[in-house]
Two-component system, LytT family, sensor kinase (Streptomyces mirabilis), 401 residues
Amino acid sequence: MSGFLAGLCIAVLPLLAAGFWLGRRTARPENLGGLGTPVEHATFETLHTASLAAPPLRAGLTGETARKSARRLRTLLGTDALCLTDQDTVLAWDGLGEHHRTEIMERLGSPLETGRGEAFRLKCEEPDCSLRWAVVAPLTVDDRVHGALVACAPRESAVLVRAAGEVARWVSVQLELADLDQSRTRLIEAEIKALRAQISPHFIFNSLAVIASFVRTDPERARELLLEFADFTRYSFRRHGDFTTLADELHAIDHYLALVRARFGDRLSVTLQIAPEVLPVALPFLCLQPLVENAVKHGLEGKTDKSHISITAQDAGAEALVVIEDNGTGMDPDRLRRILAGEVSPSGGIGLSNVDDRLRQVYGDEYGLVIETAVGAGMKITARLPKYQPGVHSAGPLPRE
């Protein structure tokens, strides 16, 4: 979908440039100086203006985003006035003749219902108003009309009709991208909720049982474990942003492992090797803990001898490299592939597919989990985390209650 939208944007831009150039030639001729041919000059200005108009529209169609983008869109068309509307009202007006708001909304019934653009003559009794024609181009996302772009001019122009339609199509693409961004955000939130739900009830029951076993024999130890349990659950169920830092995630993992070690004692050993310079790296919330829980499960399941888990986080230039490895029962690689593809229930791989999907959504497909395993050979999971990614910022330390 994103490739199609990018291709559509590229296809539309030359048409925008041609419309922009013709409109500017008709409205306000300019001295092009040494910037090349008129078409080259128009293309450059179109790309620059479009790049300024796009960011507000990527937040959706609201009064604020319409106001921020209307002036740039009017510049693209070279027209005297432009307004953006939703289904019910004018969201923003830029240029002359703002007194035409009511008249325009009264004429939008058919375009908003059918999704087809049209042009009509404006009625005006204001002696100083030069606007005589309005061109309406609906804004559609997934075949649903969200509003309209209306360009107003002193005279009827076939060029303006064509250009307004192309600009409206470009705006619709930005709104569709905004819709996709919002869908991705909702998906990430749903997946975080799913991960929280996957925190094993058995783990909670067993942790409380272990704490209870120390209440009489070692009250201080019971108190320490109760605090570990409280801190772990508080972090896991927090509502404080979609991203956290590697330091906070590792801190939560340390609480989790303290409870696991209290239950299994010498049967489980853990080695951590963390480079201090990667601790501030931001990453999706609850991204590593499920991988460690998976290592614990496979490291202890069906084994009577000691199990070992190692967790390393290294500086790899522009990335942080996190590796979680256990010497447990491992998994059949074909079954792992089907789990990651969502073809089978991940009963043996807690959160693996969930974490893999989230990493790909946030960073791109090249940042999915790399998992090495075989039956009886343990499992090694590698996660690459870019030190900087647009939109990935930690919400800061968890506030104390």
